[in-house]
Amino acid sequence: MDFRLINDQAIAQVRDLWDYCFDKADTAFFKWYFQDYALKQNKILGGFTENKLETMVHLNPYVLKIRDKVEKMPYLVGVATAPEARGRHAISGLLKTAFTLTKAFGSKAVILKPIFAGIYQPYGFAYTHLRTAYNLPLAGLTLPHIDDSLQVIRIPTSEGETVLPQIYAAAMKSYNGYAVRDARIWHNLLTEAAGEKTETAVVMENNKPVGYVLYNRNEETISVLELTAINGRIRNRLLAYLKGFSGIFKTLEWLGACDDTSYLSFKDQQYTPRIAPFMMGRVIDLPGILQTVKVPEHEPESSLILFVQDEFIKSNNLLLQLNISAKGIELRDTIKVPDITMDISTFTQLYFGTYSVEQLWANDRIMAEDQTKLQILSRLFPAQNNYINENF
To answer: What is the reported pLDDT for 87?
Structure first.
């Protein structure tokens, strides 16, 4: 199979494969995506046999805030294989080529929102962002005291670019792993949302916007696309606004942040949410990440031998000595017995901060005999509070 970047001559085949596997050609998202986004804002990699497209992945450009650093991180979207090419491991060559390209473009990791995680786990992907998934009767949404001085206004979704970005930026200060949204990202998000008839409500406090919700009214369900607030008091006001639809609509569907605790006020425990994996990630440049890790202030000089197993990207399959000092981390090849061993999917979760070293070790994802070495690694990669809400 020949893998190459898609050009205008092949985009018709991309449209056909997307129509077959995902959104149909007559939907609002399909029309917007192929008119305003595909090839204009992203790159698309395709696998061809005799000039027939058999598999593809869209490399959508994003910037994520990871451990206080801004990182270019492609979002792999639209991974698809034509039915006649399935069973021939086409995705293996596709992903290997995609990883080579994205690393050449300067990225150290990629993200992907899976339809079925089992497809991607053999290639080193791991869950990096979890969400709190609510699906409950609107009438059962029990809330604490609501501050009625907070005003809620509705605005046209297409005009949200002047209001929502400042709220999002303020709310994201307590999170890690989120998308740094520039004007392009906001325009894409709100244009597509408006095309889907998404409505927007904003909470105002002292004439200042402090929270917003993007939602759809579908038959008997209120579906939340995004609910963002600078604190819990504002979030509760937005939830109270949504509960106001309970006379007409029956159900609320909402993916809250991983640290959301709105359910603590619920009178009926059967409405409590479940933890839902949302995004996966994959480190593609292990040395590049290790060399840029921020060493904590006052960290004593030390060293450890790290073995990361990566059967898919051989340049990541490394046994390294990490010499740690105030200047940073120096990497050296070694043949010594490792102090710490893990696979690349576990290292991916460490890098993103999804879980702590202690959690991963306790669940047999990290192998180590010397607890002092684990403590060093824990200080280098403390767990974080992750959030992301990008869908394409």
So the answer is: 86
Buried b (16+ CB within 10 A) or exposed e, 327-357: eebebeebeeebbbbbbbbbbbbbbbbbbbb
**N-term to C-term CA, the chain:** 27
For residue 359, CA distances in Å to 97, 283, 374, 381 come to 33, 20, 11, 12
Is pLDDT at 99 greater than 90 in this prediction?
A: yes
If you search the block for the tokens 């979030």, which residue do you land on?
235
- Kindly report the CA angle at 68 between 62 and 71, in degrees rounded to 5? 25
Please give the domain boundaries of the chain with CATH numbers for all domains. 2-107 (3.40.630.30), 142-245 (3.40.630.30), 285-342+357-380 (3.30.1050.10)
Q: How far is CA 141 from CA 174, 253, 273, in A?
A: 25, 11, 12
Which among 217, 158, 206, 178 is positioned nearest to 32, based on CA atoms?
158
Using DSSP bridges, classify how beta strands 199-205 and 151-155 pair: parallel, antiparallel or unpaired: antiparallel
Q: How many CB atoms lie within 10 A of CB 37?
A: 18
Beta bridge partners of 33: none
Task: Read off φ and ψ for residue 97, nearest 5 degrees.
Answer: -70, -40
Q: Is-above-0.85 flag for pTM?
A: yes
Tell me how far apart the alpha carbons of residues 205 and 371 are, in angstroms, rounded to a whole number: 49
Rounded to whole angstroms, the Cα distance separating 203 from 241 reads 10
- Measured at the alpha carbon of residue 254, what is the angle toward residues 250 and 255, in degrees to the nearest 5? 160
| Share above pLDDT 90 across residues of the chain, in percent, rounded to a whole number | 98
Averaged pLDDT score across all residues of the chain: 97
For CA atoms 118, 349, 80, 1, the dihedral sign is negative
